[in-house]
Amino acid sequence: MKQKLKAQMKERVASIAYNGKGFPSPFLFKDLKKAALKIIEEMEKRTEILVVGDYDADGVISSTIMAKFFASLNYKHARVAIPNRFRDGYGISKQFLEKHHAPLIITVDNGINAFEAAQFCKEKNYTLIITDHHCLQDDAIPDAYAVINPQQPDCHFIQKEVCGALVAFYLCYGIHQLLKKEKTILASYCV
Questions:
Q1: Taking a C-beta distance cutoff of 8 angstroms, is the pair 124, 68 a contact?
Q2: pLDDT band at residue 1, thresholds of 50, 70 and 90?
Q3: Can you give the residue ranges of the DDH domain (predicted)?
Q4: Average pLDDT, the chain
Q5: Among 105, 125, 126, 187, which residue has the least CB neighbours within 10 Å?
């Protein structure tokens, strides 16, 4: 039995698409490359970016990961906003976006059920990128530019049960990987 388990583990590990540094490739997430390329494109134009987090521990850590990442690239046009759960409700919403908005909006640890907010972004011509880890509601996905969530049926990331902070980390990691390949001013910050 022990030998069989070892063989199964070895087979499973061999089948994972590692990138050579011990982490699975960020591009196993559905829409991650699309989102990362869009973020890079907007950063090169110095577009204002709004990161919308959540008030729980996972949401605060996810928001911090994004803030630290943009700071590490010396990108001064990104800001983080966390809705007040008593005044604004949970996560990104139309009401919240009427007060806090930007041409590019990225959610962390929320947004997978934000159908009204996604529609509002479309109407206002805001680009919405959703990063979340929560379960989908009836397999429905908001109409956003990109949705990065391992719970999506067609997502190939090796783990389905991850926290929002890991999804945010992988988005930053994907951006970093793409910037290292490009010859841009932003790429000079990636070592």
A1: no
A2: low
A3: 49-177
A4: 89
A5: 125
Examine the pLDDT at 60 and tell me if it is beyond 60: yes
CA distance 87 to 136: 25
Contact 117, 128 (CB under 8 A): yes
Tokens of residue 108, six digits: 């962390």
Distance CA 83, CA 136 (A): 21
The answer to whether 109 and 62 are in contact (CB under 8 A) is yes
Query: Average pLDDT, stretch 148-158?
Result: 94
CA atoms of 169 and 162, how far apart (whole Å):
11
Distance CA 64, CA 25 (A): 22
Q: Answer for the pair 91, 52: CB distance below 8 angstroms, yes or no.
A: yes
Q: 3-class SS at 129? A: strand
Show the domains of the chain with their CATH numbers: 26-189 (3.90.1640.30)
Tell me the mean pLDDT in the region 84-111: 94
- Using CB atoms within 10 Å of the CB of residue 23, give its burial: 0 to 12 exposed, 13 to 18 middle, 19+ buried: exposed
Of 26, 30, 14, 75, the residue nearest 49 (C-alpha): 75
